[in-house]
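Supplementary material to the annual report.
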Amino acid sequence: MTETLAETTTEAEEPLPEFPMPRAAGCPFDPPPTARALHAERPVARVRLWDGSAPWLVTRYADQRALLADPRVSSESTLPGFPHASAGFRENAARRRSFITMDDPEHARIRRMVTAPFAIKRIEAMRPEIQKITDELIDSMLAGPTPVDLVRAFALPLPSLVICRLLGVPYEDHDFFQRNSSLLINRHSSVEEVVGANEALTDYLDGLVAAKLADPADDMLSELAARVRAGELTQREAANMGVLLLVAGHETTANMIALGTVALLENPDQLAVLRETEDPKVVARAVEELLRYLSIVHNGRRRVALEDIEIGGVTIRAGDGIIVYTGTGNWDAEVFPEPERLDIGRDARRHVAFGFGVHQCLGQPLARMELQVVYGTLYRRIPTLRLATGIDQLPFKDDGLVYGVYELPVTWTS
Amino acid sequence: MSGDKGDGDGSGEGKGVTMRVEVDVPKCVASGQCVMIAPDVFDQREEDGIVVLLDERPPSELHADVRESAVVCPAAAIRVVEK
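Predicted assembly:
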């Protein structure tokens, strides 16, 4: 890939900043300082990736929305120039084809096969069940010893149980699918690990789709199996979609629960508001603000330009890679004044934490519902909840596609 | 402020402003945000979650919610015309 820093010739001699970028020590919630500096100075700038390629990093909110909604920008990860997160991701691109790496009209046709269960009313109907699962997990924690790892005891089981019920995946297999999901979305996983995890999960979902073909139930895998029977999808395509839904359904929300809890414990005045409110609107607002503030999908939304595009004072050429880093878009002071302040009373609904454009998160109504139930319940039921270690001792997930903590030791006063 | 085309972000608050809402059904990606924000104006089809317009000329007390729905719609499938 050739360098075209025509607009910034004086800086052409400087080495490009590497992406992903490290966060500052002691500032686990802030976007990396280099990303914030680019946002301020060069909002569309070349960065260096693991393979030496130099895609554009887009850091400003308005440019992010414009590019993610632009039909000249492709999600097709098998195209030359697509900025892969690692060698394993590149290797898997052709094997893991699903609607998130397709463009319209094919994308729209396939995505619409799985949108119905995520409609607002159907998700709202799940609220009592999600509340029940939440309460039961908290009951178990309260009955057990302290300190406890909130990730293993609560943050990961809750969305895993919910997505298992929605899809029709047996929850008793959670060790298997959680382990392989972690490998699949870790940029430090080897090519063999990524390909192996993908094959293990796809074979597993393939088997479940086959079982639903023979014996359908009231779940999403059975709906996909019906599409296979009708000739709209191959069984392997249905299995690929199952993998996507299963992985996206638990990794993301689990990290929002755990990291959101850390952020709230560090902002006790904000936590107090949540603990004391009975108003679901206050909780819903807090969810949007935490989504904005934490922007956990921190590896960037990755795209490739199909045509030349003028944006942010530069020309992105056809074939150039594009990485939209929503962490800084959601900390753009033009849109969110004092972005570094966690303020659960602000209206943060315009955040791009779920992405933007036609690929915006399919599961967002479910994620919102889960987070509303959790943030509205956990701190009320355990009002003395606190970290059982220093925040600087927490193992943050710098190496995952999704930011969070690997473990979260917590305790409380009985 | 957000680089939008302005359709949903107008500031035409006030008495006597009429609003007409249009939805571009083929563009809709069923994110459901309009239903969440303005449930009296937008709904979703049962079979695929795609937008259904309930009220083409919503009353003024809903105008702010309708504008916000247009701003957050990821597919730019909501068009708001105010006079």
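The mean pLDDT of chain A is 94.
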